DNA sequence: CCAGAGCGAGAGCACTGCTCTCGGTGTGCT
DNA sequence: AGCACACCGAGAGCAGTGCTCTCGCTCTGG
């Protein structure tokens, strides 16, 4: 894939990657707020102004990191191997999301926390962002989920989403997937941002139980042999 | 209430309030990231160094704003008048939360988005933060919710929370309240932070439907349906 | 082989949070 | 009433930031 590139192009791609890597390193340590272009340049031994040859602004660098984070999370989720029993598969996918979030909390905060710059350009991020809910849809499709009554307006929206996703789910089932989707990220966000500190502070048990409850809400049959296969640490 | 205060104390309280008001104004316009102590001082016609007589750092100012925001949201939620039918009351409370969030999105992002400074001091904020989940608990107490099976570890946590909240709910019901709590804020956060942009973008219908579904999940009878199916533990 | 695009470095601007010092002023105690 | 002291506002200053501009050097396509 690097064939046909001039030396300059290769150097540019390499340096772009190095800048992102260093930025990601600082992001993981100090958070998005502390990320400084000058500090990145300093760590790379280059003048701060040279960074602007690769990223026109700090926000553009952050946007690039956001897209990469979406992709990393998407890959982590898609790496979950399908299991015949949808409830178990569901549990594995949810656990993968949480595991990635806990392991990369600043990157998670970058994509699911409050938008850091004035406003994010949504169009570059919407495609990689869709990978995670799509993974949830794939699990749901493996089960035979009942439909459900939906108000007309919502039904139209959901059917449009079904078209985008190329999914065979019924609108009622898709709506429930969307509900569990928001629940999952709400719970993980609360855990990461300290909102559970007074209640379900070590959130493992709460997370595990909630995922099961949401699976039941979705319509996935819950495997009552809980001790057979436990959650991955 | 201002009796017994010296002129200096009154002036100090007044200026402290003025600083917070101006900061809140800038927050609402530009977001937390853009909030600048110097700009606040400039707007108030004072030297930037004088601000530090009232707030020792920018983060302290933000923390004060966070606590105020929690209280404002708490008041908005507690201002919801109880209704005899719990499902309706529930709906009103959830709608109040969303309404406040939409009307004060930067303040909402400040408290429920990613923690802006290195790390926030949690202990000053945990008390006002508890007002919102407590309001949800109060609604749940008005209904006769069934219990549910809980793993031992989670059950212990939930019972501890019940003690803190002084609630008469069963552990199973309390756990479901916590699940719906995280769902509610996950959904609102997704709407505010643009995560629903490709799917349920005008989120009114989705929100409305989800609140009803979560009420049914909780065990509140839906007012429009004769006898909704209760949750299955 | 050479014009022009790409590139790195440095200086510089306007801004930030924060500190320190310096006078003036209101306050509580004697 | 007088006074010591804590409090307060202003200004200068430090270190850091994002970003721009200009200057030479180098690699590249024609």
Automatic annotation (TrEMBL), chains A, B:
Source organism of the structure: Actinokineospora spheciospongiae
InterPro entries given in the database record: Homeodomain-like_sf, HTH-type_TetR-like_transc_reg, HTH_TetR, MT1864/Rv1816-like_C, Tet_transcr_reg_TetR-rel_C_sf
Gene3D superfamilies per UniProt: Tetracycline Repressor, domain 2
Domain HTH tetR-type: 13-73
Protein name: Transcriptional regulator, TetR family
Pfam families: TetR_C_33, TetR_N
Sorted UniProt keywords: DNA-binding, Transcription, Transcription regulation
Record GO terms (molecular function): DNA-binding transcription factor activity; transcription cis-regulatory region binding
Positions of the DNA-binding region: 36-55
């Amino acid at each position: 894939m690097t064939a046909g590139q001039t030396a300059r192009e290769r150097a540019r791609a390499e340096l772009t990657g190095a800048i992102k890597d260093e930025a990601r390193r600082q992001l993981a340590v100090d958070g998005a707020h502390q990320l400084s272009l000058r500090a990145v340049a300093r760590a790379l031994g280059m003048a701060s102004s040279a960074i602007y040859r690769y990223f026109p602004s700090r926000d553009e660098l952050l946007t690039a990191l956001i897209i990469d984070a979406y992709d990393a999370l998407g890959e982590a989720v898609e790496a979950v191997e399908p299991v015949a029993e949808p409830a178990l598969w569901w549990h594995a996918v949810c656990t993968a999301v949480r595991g990635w979030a806990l392991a990369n909390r600043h990157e998670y905060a970058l994509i699911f926390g409050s938008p850091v710059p004035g406003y994010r350009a949504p169009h570059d991020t919407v495609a990689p962002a869709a990978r995670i809910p799509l993974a949830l849809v794939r699990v749901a499709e493996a089960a035979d989920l009942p439909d459900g009554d939906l108000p007309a307006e919502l039904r139209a929206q959901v059917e449009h989403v079904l078209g985008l996703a190329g999914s065979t789910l019924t609108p009622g089932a898709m709506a429930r997937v969307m509900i569990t989707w928001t629940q999952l990220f709400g719970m993980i966000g609360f855990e990461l941002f300290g909102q559970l500190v007074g209640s379900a502070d070590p959130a493992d048990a709460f997370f595990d139980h909630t995922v099961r409850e949401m699976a039941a809400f979705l319509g996935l049959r819950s495997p009552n042999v809980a001790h057979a296969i436990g959650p991955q640490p």
